[in-house]
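I hope you will forgive my troubling you with a question about protein structure. I should value your view on which stretches of the chain appear to form regular backbone elements. Here, with my thanks, is the record as I have it:
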Amino acid sequence: MSVNHLESNLKLLAGTNQKLAEQIRQAYRPEYPEIRTAKDGSPIPVLNRKCLHSTYAPDAEAAKWVQSLNLDPNADALYVIGGIGFGYHLEALSKAIPPDRLVVIEKDPALVAAALASRPTGVFPEGLRFVVGNKPVTAYQNVAEFGLASRSRVIFLEHTASSQAHSDFYPTIKGMFRQREISERGGYKILLVSPVYGGSLPITYSVQRALTNLGHRCELLDNSIFYPGYQHLQKLSSNRSHTAQLHNAMQAMIAESVTARALEIRADLVLAMAQAPLTPDVLLELKKAEIPTAFWFVEDARTLEYWKGIAPLYDHFFAIQKDDFFEDLKQIGCKNPHYLPTAADVSVHQPLELSAQELSEFGSDLSHVGAGYYNRRHFFTGLLDYNLKIWGSDWEKAGALNSVLQRDGARIPTEDISRIFNATKINLNLHSSQYHEGVNPFGDFLNPRTFEIAGCGAFQLVDERKYLPENFDIGNEIITFTSLPDLREKADYYLSNEAERLLISAAARQRVVSEHTYEHRLQELLGVIAAARPEWEPRSGGLPTAEEIIRQAGEDSELGLVMKRFAGLGPLTLEDVARDIEQGNGELLRTEAMILLLNEFRRWGLEKGVM
């Protein structure tokens, strides 16, 4: 009978990380995973009928793997290993690299428990650190806490069998380290394409801020400027066919501007948000130009089905739904969809100190911010005996709800939405449905409001959703309801228990800050793309900063003086500097004139195809 080493290994681990030791103890399952015996007598785990180590000699296989890496033990680097297996490769690696420079990421806590139970103490050397059971972006950030910033570089080592077992996990983390390296060299040039109008428009602005914060060069193609034109076309004719033709012609023109701009700036990626007006023809043009394309579908696939015509044409497709929807996507030729929920922009969705006037205007016991969908019109009539306010558009003919509708149903600016969340005692978050009179029993995706209310450190009652438990701790970070009577009971309770409301909302805010910001989402998005494109490099190469140019030219040189106004802005292109000079006033310095001339030459070269 084999010896179980779990407790002795956990005792050693608890000396440095008690919380992790307890997590692993609770994850232990004696029957999991299947364990076989190699020819040399070593235990080896089996996942999905695949052995994670050699069935002959795991030690010899591990030693050969380490030798093939040609590692420099003196290199100033942090080595991150994706996958624990049963640790044979870690044991071999720790003989070549000091253990305090090794971090092991493992998705499956139960596998870690099985490894500690199956291998004797001493196999996992002292100083070796573990990141266990997290989402990819959280695992990536936990590694950063281990001193990533103090190292000159990170070397990510994939345990091949682990990557094959979790193909959506370890490659994505590796891609995140890759995009981080690129950001330190000036970042990718990303053309972000907004819709003309709609709910994903404010998300687009948050995405731009997040990409910039991550060190990438994001240019926004803001198509909202065309919204008045869309409205004008709508009024020209009562003939729906004529109006549709006009709208299609306008969309084709807007879509073509994406190609023009992407080629002009030599974009490394075109990222389109939901409802962005890209046509199949434009997507094919971008593919011919070898510019990767990605689409973030932040809408309900059951309500809006236009994804069927465009999903296969994008190189990368991200969505707020998965499971059956992914099967539908694959059937139409979208090979590798990726689940990416929305988030909060903590520069906007944050706790606010409100004036007495703002509390009076925006505050209430209960409130809801959102459009007047069918289920909300029915459901909220059962709450009219509360101090209730409803904010948002599309509430025409709301009947009894008109008495609580604010601003006559006008669209609410983002800044005021954050004030409402902060001022309200209980924010009601009922996801929209066109087919139910209350809670949708099949609801899965999470709307942006879920994360935004939490980001404000505000309290919410949200209808039960399939994906909610994997994003928040139900009961401690967020409270759910299943029906009108259930909501009324919980509303009464939490209106009477302010201290409990504040504890829950503070925990939700902390969860958002640590896991659910747009920086988190864009790290993951770029990690997925980088994992799928190992050779993905910026077309412009590494870009200098103003500080680097000043250092080389000299602080007192004319070029140095010109560049001082760009200090602190990060990596720069010639176009960035020239655009600033073009917008200035007064007589040009000789250096400024030369920069403008060089930029004109660059534009000419791009136009002629020689650059």
